[in-house]
Amino acid sequence: MYAESVSEEALRQDFETLTVSKRLVRSVSQKLRKKNHRGEGGEEDKVRGVSLKCLTLYGRGGGCKVGADTGEELGDPSYRRRSSASEEGKVYKSICGIEDNNFDCFSYGVREKFWKKNNRKDLDLEESVRNSRMHIFLPDDILEMCLVRLPLTSLMNARLVCKKWRHLTTTPRFLQMRREGSCQKPWLFIFGAVKDGYCSGEIHALDVSQDQWHRISADILRGRFMFSVASMQDDIYIVGGCSSLTNFGRVDRSSFKTHKGVLVFSPLTKSWRKASSMKFARSMPILGISEVCSDFSVIQSHQNRHDRQFPRSRVGGVSDVYEDPHRLSLRRQYRNAFDENEPSLLPNRRSYKFIRQRCEQANMKGCKRFVLIAVGGLGSWDEPLNSGEIYDFLSNKWTEIQKLPIDFGVVCAGVVCNGMFYVCSENDKLAGYDIERGFWIGIQTSAFPPHVHEYYPKLVSCNGHLFLLSVSWCEGDGQIGRRNKAVRKLWELDLMYLTWTEVSVHPDAPMDWNPVFVADRNLIFGVEMFKIFGQVLDFFTVCDVSDVEMNWSHISRNHMAHELDASSCMTKTMAVLHL
């Protein structure tokens, strides 16, 4: 009985407190209504009995704290302690679980909006913590599978998320997975841009699938021009070049220095590194990259063949094997000039043993082996070169190869096709270098494609086929008074019968004297730049050789050369990668 009386007494006190709170709220609301009586606000006060102008008296949680200020007026200091910072986020509820709507000074949905507005920072913090927890508990192998499928631009943005993602996407394992995946898209990289008379060193990259241009700053190339580039897997090799001695950064050939250094650029990691320098300084060398067998040795194949000049030739598709089966004439010819037992010509056993060990390690890892060939170009005195060098990626060394004959002429184009490095000269001669065996072969075709001598031919290779692009005059259909026009044609060489066949015609007029054509897989990409009406224009085209018709199409309508100088038309070079 005593307990029941105590509980009834406590309940009665609570009801009295509630009555006092209602009276206080009513009085304060009437005062505010009289003071801030305005149009719709007054009508809403009559309906709800409280003004919406008392938002400053409400806490974050939506509970009304009208009684908080009046509690001090009534001499209740303990109420101030109850409304501390720890209680601000709580909603005040009525006694006995019955909520009186008269205490809610917010309309429907306003409480939640007001609470979210004042707690936005807290929500962002909670979301970031939730995301960080998700990243921590996501396994690395699953994360790799997700990141390896991203486009290149998205992958670059993903590396900015955290250090873990950056490290995970730059490991050799990740790069190998991306290289072997099917999510790669072709990218074109344009080098040699000249702006305001200076070699800016900027690289313009085109995402062919998205038709978007990206600009990459490369301070290491600033002031360097007339170099050549070649792509190998995910890297781009910049070989040779020139730089002005008097006006650094400008395209000035009055006083210049020719380089023999080699730089390597990796677009996936945006990193640069230096490779071994060539033995001779060259500008605009003709480059070619070929895959070789695992037991390939540069020293064994090339060191003993410096002085041999075209020991073999092919005429009209008939090999000299049928003319001289036992090669007795070749043996007699080089018996005195070449001695295989001469100690000075034998390869260094220690270096050969070292390279052999590196080859065995590469075979165990299942890595491919490549070599880079640099032939021709201009020397330190701006003289044409007929020498060549080969670079082994495994040993990081350059080795001289057999020279081209003097009567071959100046090399103007070259490409690797089926293990043979084909080069053509300004004299319409064709030769091939057998990379595995280490000697040149003179190739005489039925009839070299006709071309205008001011436009040098270009060689490209796609899917084991050798193509040549040349500019020739097109007849005016026999009509009197109609001017002849020049067109650029695509020719294919039959490697069996050594005959040229016209397969396609380029749609654009040959306005560029120095166009660049690069092939990758079954696609031939071309870039032409020329200045007209005071502005430099660029045209990018592509041809799919797997298509029967082999039609050309334009791939970029966003001209990137409008801000470049006209000298960029001569200094430009291009490389293509699938990234």
Topology readout:
Blueprint: H1 2-35, H2 39-48, H3 66-73, H4 78-82, H5 110-118, H6 120-137, H7 140-147, H8 152-158, H9 163-168, H10 172-180, E1 186-191, E2 194-195, E3 198-199, E4 203-207, E5 212-216, E6 228-232, E7 235-239, E8 242-244, E9 256-258, E10 262-266, E11 271-275, E12 286-292, H11 298-302, E13 312-315, E14 318-319, H12 320-323, H13 328-333, H14 349-365, E15 369-375, E16 388-392, E17 397-401, E18 411-417, E19 420-425, E20 430-434, E21 439-444, E22 458-462, E23 465-474, E24 485-493, E25 500-505, E26 516-520, E27 523-532, E28 535-544, E29 552-554, H15 568-571, E30 573-578
Parallel strand pairs: 13-21
Antiparallel strand pairs: 1-4, 1-30, 2-3, 4-5, 6-7, 7-10, 8-9, 10-11, 12-15, 13-14, 15-16, 16-17, 18-19, 19-20, 20-21, 22-23, 23-24, 24-25, 26-27, 27-28, 28-29
Description:
This protein is an alpha+beta fold. Among the domains are: 41 residues; 324 residues, Kelch-type beta propeller (Neuraminidase). 26% of the residues lie in helices and 28% in strands. It has 15 helices and 30 strands. Strands 14-13-21-20-19-18 form a six-stranded mixed sheet. A four-stranded antiparallel sheet has the order 5-4-1-30, with no helix packed on it. A four-stranded antiparallel sheet has the order 6-7-10-11, with no helix packed on it. A hairpin with a 2-residue loop joins strand 13 and strand 14. The radius of gyration is 39 Å and the shape is elongated. About 22% of the residues have low confidence. It comes from Gossypium darwinii. This is F-box domain-containing protein. It holds the Pfam family Kelch_1.
